[in-house]
Design brief:
This protein is an alpha/beta fold and about 325 residues long. The protein is built from 8 helices and 15 strands. Strands 5-9-4-1-2-3-10 form a 7-stranded parallel β-sheet, sandwiched between helices. A 5-stranded parallel β-sheet has the order 12-11-13-14-15. Helix 4 packs parallel to helix 8. It binds flavin-adenine dinucleotide.
């Protein structure tokens, strides 16, 4: 039996996030797994149908616990101490990356970040993660008695399996004094699906030549029900906000289809999208590195290719 604690996150509606549902698929894929999901605050409606054994609510964590998530770290550490799971899974989000690493330090556990696969290995688990900026995948057997893992969004299919977990409250009684307070929040301006959750991502790079073409990329992303990404060169040029940046210093995405338009395929960019199921490249330079990474490629000027691509998608969707 592998006991797994899955730290759930919410979407903007306060329901269980897609990346959490994908992490449940990963957890349930392990042999003899018994999965408990922990969630901050009251359990949302969608928690009662999760494909897990138990949902534990952590009422002492609230929206004021931002920054380095002191209260969440303390509360989840207490839960881990009291339940001794062999594996703890977080989404690879800001929250998961910070709290997962802090929890691993406190509980003297192994920490594996940004994984795209978790499997059984002997009595323990092994994880797969992109290395060398996404140019290769490495598999690690975790020898520590506890593995703390952050899982990249999109690495697993969104699980349609449901269950009827018991719901319990956990109160550690720990109350950490907040060393920082939130003085204001800025909501990211966005329409449609979140970049990290999108099944289709249409990304633009320096080859677009300016900010205006991003409206064509947005039309294509909307027609596909996806989201718009960008290379750092396009973001640094001010053509699109940095919240769209994909790559080593941007977001990691694993959509079904990643369409790279006017992007050369530098290793730092590929670090954020190499685990996509299929990459489609549109680039006028046949020698561009992106064609080594792409499953499908069109050598040509995006200005000629994209309008007919968009028209065809609209036709097929009609
Ligand atoms: C520490 C570090 C971290 C980094 N982090 C990131 C990161 O997170 N994300 C990231 O993206 N980059 C990152 N970079 C930068 C990265 O190295 C590249 O410089 C960047 O990805 C290049 O962006 P690009 O492909 O848009 O531009 P370019 O490399 O300039 O490529 C533009 C491409 O557009 C093509 N093109 C030109 N005109 C057209 C046309 N009309 N139609 C079709 N194609 C055309 C060209 O053939 C070319 O291949 C990082 C770099 C460093 C050093």
């Amino acid at each position: 039996m592998t006991s797994i604690l899955l730290v759930a996150e919410r979407d903007e509606q306060g329901e269980i996030s897609q990346s959490t549902v994908q992490a449940i698929a990963a957890a349930n894929g392990l042999v003899d797994s018994v999965v408990t999901a922990a969630i901050a605050g009251e359990a949302p409606a969608s928690a009662s149908a999760l494909a897990v054994e138990k949902v534990v609510t952590l009422s002492s964590i609230d929206d004021a616990d931002l920054g380095i998530y002191d209260q969440a770290t303390a509360e989840i550490s207490a839960l881990v101490e009291s339940t001794s799971p062999e594996v703890v899974i977080f989404s690879k989000s800001d929250f998961g990356s910070v709290v997962g690493a802090r929890l691993a330090f406190r509980s003297d556990s192994a920490f594996a970040a940004d994984c795209i696969e978790i499997s059984n290995a002997g009595d323990g688990v092994s994880v797969t993660r992109p290395v060398y900026g996404g140019s290769a995948l490495a598999e690690f057997d975790i020898v520590s008695s506890r593995a703390i893992i952050t899982l990249r969004a999109g690495a697993y299919e969104t699980n349609t399996e449901t269950g009827s977990p018991s719901i319990e409250a956990f109160e550690s009684g720990v109350n950490v004094e907040q060393t920082a307070s939130v003085t204001g929040t800025v909501a990211e301006a966005r329409e449609g699906v979140r970049l990290e959750d999108a099944n289709f991502v249409v990304s633009g790079g320096r080859g677009l030549g300016g900010p205006e073409p991003f409206s064509v990329l947005t039309d294509l992303a909307n027609a596909l029900g996806g989201a718009v990404g960008a290379s750092r060169a396009a973001c640094d040029a001010g053509w699109i906000d940095h919240s769209h940046q994909v790559g080593l210093t941007g977001k990691s995405v694993s959509p079904d289809v990643y369409i790279a338009v006017g992007i050369s395929g530098a290793s730092q960019h590929m670090a954020g999208c190499s685990s996509s199921r299929a990459i489609v490249a549109i680039n006028k330079d046949a020698d561009s590195n992106i064609f080594k990474e792409a499953r499908f490629g069109i050598v040509g000027d995006w200005e000629k290719v994209l309008p007919s691509f968009l028209a065809t998608v609209r036709e097929l969707k009609a």
